[in-house]
Amino acid sequence: MTRSVVSVDKDERLEHVLDLMRKHRVTKIPVLEHGRLVGVATDGLIADELGGLRTVGKPASSLHASTVTFRDVKTISPEADWEDALDLLRGNSVGLVPVTHDGTLLGVVTKSDFLAFVESGRPLSDVMKRDLHAVSPTDRVIHARRVMIDEKVERLPVLLSGQLVGIVTETDIAFGLAKFKAEFPPNHQKHQLKEFLVEDIMVRSVVTATPDTPVRHAARRMREQDIGALPLTNGAGRIAGMVTRSDLLATIEG
Fold first, then answer.
1. Quick one: CA torsion of 3, 87, 254, 100, rounded to 10 degrees?
2. Which one of 54, 84, 113 terminates a domain?
3. Which element (helix H / strand E) includes 28?
4. Which of 100, 168, 172, 243 has its CA 20 to 30 A from that of 152?
5. Could you tell me if residue 207 is inside a domain?
6. DSSP string, 61-112
7. What are phi and psi of 50, to 5 degrees?
8. pTM for this structure?
9. Ranges of the chain with pLDDT below 70
10. Which pLDDT does position 104 carry in this prediction?
11. Of 116, 170, 93, 154, which Cα lies nearest the Cα of 1?
12. Do the beta carbons of residue 98 and residue 75 sit within 8 Å?
């Protein structure tokens, strides 16, 4: 487990939660109340909160960690078998399992922690997702978020004329909406949201692999680069599929 864990109190401002995510390069942060774990703040819930009509005109500084906290979090004890932790991660939409004792947070286990144990020499073509959902650079950010919600994915490749030109994640949307709300006056936000495009927030320098890359090599690359997915491209630069940490963890034999 990771013992040095960044956490926040449920009454901390959302602005502070975003600052911690940015500083420590994390997308999920355990939330405490009186020192005891109550849930996990996620980038996806932040994107939903900042992008919702209910919060139009409200800056991130007016919201709190409790409003973006996923509370139905499964925890595990430090004495548990690693297979149990892996099983929880595989069936866990949060992507993080808190390690606790009597409600006290001792550490966390993440999908990234398990990438070091991916040893399969199979090609990524055996585990990649081929049926992908994508957006274009000129699609609205709120459309991209809608696709993520409907299709239950955390990231989308950005394509232009079939070519991969970027990737957009829940974290990109969360940070982008927070900046958007800080830049535009409340009475202008509803109109400006229509002009807030994927190209304004997407990551343009995308780490990729090919379908014949061995699974273990992809795991090492994702761990070293601290990324959650690899788009897979063919020789012509067109996207052929994508693999996520979850796809690679599925190859670990318990």
1. 30
2. 113
3. strand 28-33
4. 100
5. yes
6. GGSBGGGGEE-----B-TTS-HHHHHHHHHT-SSSEEEEEETTEEEEEEEHH
7. -75, -25
8. 0.89
9. 53-60, 254
10. 94
11. 116
12. yes
> Concatenated DSSP letters for 199-245?
GGT-B-S---B-TTSBHHHHHHHHHHHT-SEEEEE-TTSBEEEEEEH
pLDDT value of residue 57: 60
- Residue 101 included in any domain: yes
Pairing between β-strand 28-33 and β-strand 8-9 as defined by DSSP bridges? parallel
pLDDT at 66: 95
CA angle 26, 172, 168 (to 5 degrees): 115
CATH number, domain containing residue 207: 3.10.580.10
Give the domain extent around 231: 124-249
Both 151 and 96 in one domain: the answer is: no
What is the spatial distance between Cα 249 and Cα 142, in angstroms, rounded to a whole number? 30
Query: Where does a domain end: 64, 94, 113?
Result: 113
* pLDDT, tens digit, 9 for 90 and up, residues 200-213: 999 999 999 999 99
Closest CA to 55 of 243, 190, 210, 237: 190
For Cα atoms 12, 16, 22, give the angle at the middle one, nearest 5 degrees.
145
